[in-house]
Amino acid sequence: NKLGLNEIRKRFLNFFESKDHLVRPSYSLVPQDDASLLLINAGMAPLKNYFMGKEKPPKNRMATCQKCIRTGDIENVGVTSRHATFFEMLGNFSFGDYFKRESIHWGWEFITEHLEIPKEKLWVSIYENDDEAFEIWNKEIGVEAEKIVRLGKDDNFWEIGTGPCGPCSEIYFDRGEKYGCKSEDCKPGCDCDRYVEFWNHVFTQFDKDEQGNYNPLPNPNIDTGMGLERIACLMQGVDTIFDIDTIKHILQGVIQIANIKYNEDNKKDISIRVITDHIRAVTFLVSDGVLPSNEGRGYVLRRLLRRAARHGKLLGVKGAFLYQLADRVIDVSKEAYPELVQKSDYIKKVIKIEEDKFQETIDQGMDILKQYIDELKDNNEKILSGEKAFKLYDTFGFPIDLTKEILIEEGLDIDKDEFEKEMEKQRNRARVARQNEGAQGWKEDAFSKLNISEKVEFIGYEDLKAKSNV
Ligand code: ATP
Ligand code: MG
Ligand code: MG
Ligand code: MG
């Protein structure tokens, strides 16, 4: 049963429409009216006001497929089989309407009847003392007690500070022993690739007050999230999310441009997957109106783009190439995101300009680093000061891993502790900048700031350069 990613998305939304949910297209990656969040990282994030009761939802049952960015997962990308910085999250939501029982029953119905996942492959986790969830899974659905794992607060309780919170229940797919770590107690929650978490159901049933009391909410909510790429990976029986129909097409573009083979050298494979992932994130960020800059969202975009360019260099690619790959992202994503086609020229232009700028940065940084290296050698020293390394990184945008690599080739190294201290200072500065940015609000579509219409007419390179503020 090799369902394509686009088909799975459609089936999910149709299913919840048939359960009387209002289906909405994905919200922008840029949060609207929410200073607490840099980029949307879950299906529930744009709906927060409905959950908090600050705004009345258009309907008390909704379903979406939401674009998400999680830069916190960046180190995992290309390394684990299941993490991306950009991914789509399928979700059904209840605002004080249905609760645990319906959420679990419909979730099970969708995956076992509509996606036809064999029941014996499925496991679930619940919050350690959520006996109500246990009863529903065990007595009503018929999942064996041995396949219901109780997990602690870190894994299966959702809360942020005070306010609405509650236990979670996750659904896992057992990919079989060959993916396992072979440890005695390997089960859902284990870090290996055997049991893949793909759907999280959050039961928002408490309101946590300032004193730390969990007060039952009169109208509890439901918030679920299922990674579309993950469920596609499981449905298509492939090893990683990079092997599913849509993402594979992008990955093949990377291989073609780099003119290398996949599955021959693990280090190169990671670079290939990193580029594949980051170009997806970059394409969608630019489409949602983000431009490269040195702070906030713009910095996330710049970092992802430059990291991808850097991995291109590792693969021996000469010159700008990422902008060409955007075409492949658009091709496989346009069914759900037709605006990508309209914005295609604009997206590629923004990427190309930033790639070219990065090339200049590399050339300039190499000159400075060369000077530093000569100085070290003249003075018979082996360690580059963290301050200098940070200056290269922060002022000249030269990637720190590149600095490290070149130094090591010369038998030298960096003062890591000092560098980390400088980084910490920078993080604090960024935090303050972010708060200030949030305070200005993002009510309007970020695109309107660019003075271009939704159709995206041509804007000159000079104009773009000026606005991307470097
Ligand atoms: P994991 O433990 O695998 O990192 P999570 O518990 O952090 O996942 P949730 O916050 O519960 O993830 O998000 C709901 C669902 O979104 C997950 O069950 C998964 O299917 C998907 N998901 C989460 N993070 C990623 C990611 N980085 N890339 C792709 N899909 C993801
Ligand atoms: Mg995670
Ligand atoms: Mg998890
Ligand atoms: Mg989870």
UniProtKB/TrEMBL annotation:
Where in or outside the cell it occurs: the entry states: Cytoplasm
Q: What is its EC number?
A: 6.1.1.7
Q: Name one GO biological process term.
A: alanyl-tRNA aminoacylation
Q: What is its main location?
A: cytoplasm
Q: What molecular functions are annotated in GO for this chain?
A: alanine-tRNA ligase activity; aminoacyl-tRNA deacylase activity; ATP binding; catalytic activity, acting on a protein; transferase activity; tRNA binding; zinc ion binding
Q: How is the cofactor bound?
A: Binds 1 zinc ion per subunit.
Cofactor(s) recorded for this entry are: Zn(2+)
Taking the record's annotation, the residue ranges forming a coiled coil are 409-436
State the GO CC annotations: cytosol
Its UniProt entry gives the catalysed reaction(s) as: tRNA(Ala) + L-alanine + ATP = L-alanyl-tRNA(Ala) + AMP + diphosphate
Q: Which class of enzymes does this protein belong to?
A: ligase
Provide this UniProt record's keywords sorted from A to Z.
Answer: Aminoacyl-tRNA synthetase, ATP-binding, Coiled coil, Cytoplasm, Ligase, Metal-binding, Nucleotide-binding, Protein biosynthesis, RNA-binding, tRNA-binding, Zinc
Span of domain Alanyl-transfer RNA synthetases family profile: 3-470
Record-stated family: Belongs to the class-II aminoacyl-tRNA synthetase family.
Its annotated function is as follows: Catalyzes the attachment of alanine to tRNA(Ala) in a two-step reaction: alanine is first activated by ATP to form Ala-AMP and then transferred to the acceptor end of tRNA(Ala). Also edits incorrectly charged Ser-tRNA(Ala) and Gly-tRNA(Ala) via its editing domain.
The free-text domain note is:
Consists of three domains; the N-terminal catalytic domain, the editing domain and the C-terminal C-Ala domain. The editing domain removes incorrectly charged amino acids, while the C-Ala domain, along with tRNA(Ala), serves as a bridge to cooperatively bring together the editing and aminoacylation centers thus stimulating deacylation of misacylated tRNAs.
- Its protein name is Alanine--tRNA ligase
Question: Native species of this protein?
Answer: Alkalithermobacter thermoalcaliphilus JW-YL-7 = DSM 7308
Question: What gene codes for this chain?
Answer: alaS
User: What range of the intact protein is shown?
Assistant: 2 to 471 of 880
